[in-house]
Amino acid sequence: MNWLKSTLSAVAGTQEPIYGPEAIQSVTKQAETTPYTALTRDDLRWRAYQYTNVETQTFYVMADNGTLVFVQIIYSNIVGIHTTAQFNAKIFNLKGGEHVWHSDPLSNFMFDEGMYSFGADNLSLTLNEEADAYVLKSTVSADCLVDLTFKRTTPGFVVGKNGTSYFGTDPKNPWGSMSHSFWPRCTVEGTITTPGQAYDMAGRGVFIHALQGMKPHHAAARWNFINFQTPTYTAIMMEYTTPPSYGSTKVNVGGILKDGEIIYAGATNAVTHTDSAQDSENDWPEPKSARYTWEGTTSDGKEVTAEVEGSLGPRLDRIDVMAQVPGFIKSIAGSVAGTRPYIYQYSPQEKLSLKLNVGGTETIEEGTMFCEATFIS
User: Which of 3.40.1570.10, 2.40.370.10, 1.20.1560.10, 1.10.1660.10 is the CATH number of 2-375?
Assistant: First the structure.
């Protein structure tokens, strides 16, 4: 029974008391005085904390030939006694059918001395000296050979001073945190090779470094994410809603950018699911249409508003996260913690448009979108 309790705590945990919204020091508060901060090389270090946390570096690719991909390194620590690392790669089949999906544990993983680069058996992720490019090479799976170079064309940013929200009833001694750092607009070169095809990855990309410095389902009950790329602009947004234990507080970070310039970045953004339908398999309100809005000012004081709105189209995928753990743990965890995490992924084949207004000058430009809606508890 003690083993079961510890396993449940690691995988799902139990519900927390109602602390109230004052128990989260949201990054949106920082953003009231410092809307965003440009990333430096030091900001790109892996944290590798010695307590329960999940740290990810994720690379999204929208290739010029229409291929949609993400690759991801996950580094996690369970209660300070067990660390694991995983490499995920997913090539979406936009025409229906099976996606190419590989998720492989990593062995002998380590960081370089400065904590900028990551290595493991048959995998390397290297940040260059100029801190403007990552090179990722993986032969972890013989069926998915990855060779990618991400070079940013716009400064990276965090919202607020450090991109971090803190959890805890004592602001000076938080017991958890959540942070996101962005390279929202990158050029991508390279290939991903599978037994059936070699994919040319030349195109645009996004890099996100995220850290959940606590049990993930304690930090957030729901998530929304959009990566929208046009020939000229990038619109990006990450929003999570805390569980009731932290007042069901919404935290939204994002920005509008073009090559060489952050037009706007901050926390005054919003996501609305304008149409949804109850998923018959799990009762979550699966979104069918959505509106994403950004509102703020440029660094020289011009007003900025932006919007992407429309049908999400047929979903690309629906991921039952708890299906990755043994069935008996899944059933008990669901009853103990009310945790039923599902991720819905979309990339509308009917092009949507970014409507951008900067200082009274309006621009409308079609683009390619990838978005997620995640329901946890």
Answer: 2.40.370.10
